[in-house]
Amino acid sequence: MITGNLRPSRVLVDETAILHNLQHAIGQLDAGTKLFAVIKADAYGHGLLRVARVAAAAGAGGYCVAILDEAVALRQADFTLPILVLGIIEPETAAVAAANTIAVPVGSVAWLEAALPVLQADPDLPKLRVHLALDTGMGRIGFRRLEEMNAAIAFIQAHADQFEIAGLFTHFATADEKDTTYFNEQVAKFHQYLAALPNKPEYVHVSNSATSLWHAACNGNMIRYGVAMYGLNPSGHAIPETPYPLEPALSLVSKLAFVKQIHAGDGVSYGVTYRAAGDEWIGTVPMGYADGWLRRLQGFHVLVDGQACEIVGRVCMDQFMIRLPKEYAPGTEVVLVGQSGNQKITLQDVADFSDTIHYEVACSLAERLPRVSVNPIK
Ligand SMILES: *Cc1c(COP(=O)(O)O)cnc(C)c1O
């Protein structure tokens, strides 16, 4: 993907906001509990290496990523903190993980059996550090029965030159909801597994952002802190109260590329789903659904000069049109997410209009949009 550095559409990332969110989260932890910064999917669209650097400066104890490539990218950029991949990696790639001291989750004996010969093929490899994944109700990855977990532990003990147990974890399906019934069932199951372990591993962890914010008593000795680091409330609107303020880090800005006046009946964009009611000033913004500014955002608005301007006509792949309150010069700033005058548009607003969650809006922003740091940390 070619990044549009010569185009004025940009994602602005406020490093100080991320630093503050991390410092607040770390300040709430019990002594000895580590925060692993979840920076999967290009740090939820905020930029992998940039956020990795801010997290290290804030005192994070490690990183979580989704896929092995993201972990390798961190090692290639000389990040030395512990890294945990959250998804199951291909057993054929286990040697890449071991060679780069990258920990991976294990949820079946079959995976260990498949990875074993790959690791045995190179006797110089360090041991592969694994976190036992427990499926206590998320239904995604992990052991679903105690006997399966115990069989995996026995297998690892029998192949202690290749594998080392570094952690035990689970993931909650409803930590961001007001009703805690299902959450409590998952906690109870996790404690059953934990009680059955002969030795507690180095890391015992269950908390995503929502759990760390609203169920901190469960934390264990590590949290996997993601969306709240970027200043977003994991629950959306469900639980507005947070123990510390969350500062949103991401803004999305562009500039008017073209401005014209149209007249009653004149059509705008594919399918002519919009016609001017009278004399109207129309601005064209150089961003579209190829940038992650979704086609279904027709009818939503952006900010120009502190005023909301409706998106009129269909959003195209690379451009969309807005109705301006008066003539503005090409080059005038357009705020798609962020503050303009005393008006604000949040990722949550965009998510609400497009019937999704802010996580999806943030990580749909394409690589074509350059990421630019603002308020950089020292
Ligand atoms: C993505 C992810 C997290 C982080 O979740 P947030 O809601 O962004 O804090 C934590 N744990 C696992 C297993 C994940 O996949």
TrEMBL record:
Family annotation (SUPFAM superfamilies): Alanine racemase C-terminal domain-like, PLP-binding barrel
Needed cofactors, names only, are: pyridoxal 5'-phosphate
**Entry binding sites for substrate:** R140, M317
Which EC class is the enzyme in? isomerase
Which PROSITE patterns does UniProt cross-reference here? ALANINE_RACEMASE
Residues with the modification N6-(pyridoxal phosphate)lysine, per the entry, are K40
EC number(s) per entry: 5.1.1.1
Q: Which biological pathway?
A: Amino-acid biosynthesis; D-alanine biosynthesis; D-alanine from L-alanine: step 1/1
The record's SMART domains line, in alphabetical order, gives: Ala_racemase_C (SM01005)
- What GO CC annotations are associated with the protein? cytosol
Active site (record annotation): K40 (proton acceptor), Y270 (proton acceptor)
Which PANTHER family does the entry link to? ALANINE RACEMASE, ALANINE RACEMASE, CATABOLIC-RELATED
Family as reported in the entry's similarity comment: Belongs to the alanine racemase family.
Q: What is this protein called?
A: Alanine racemase
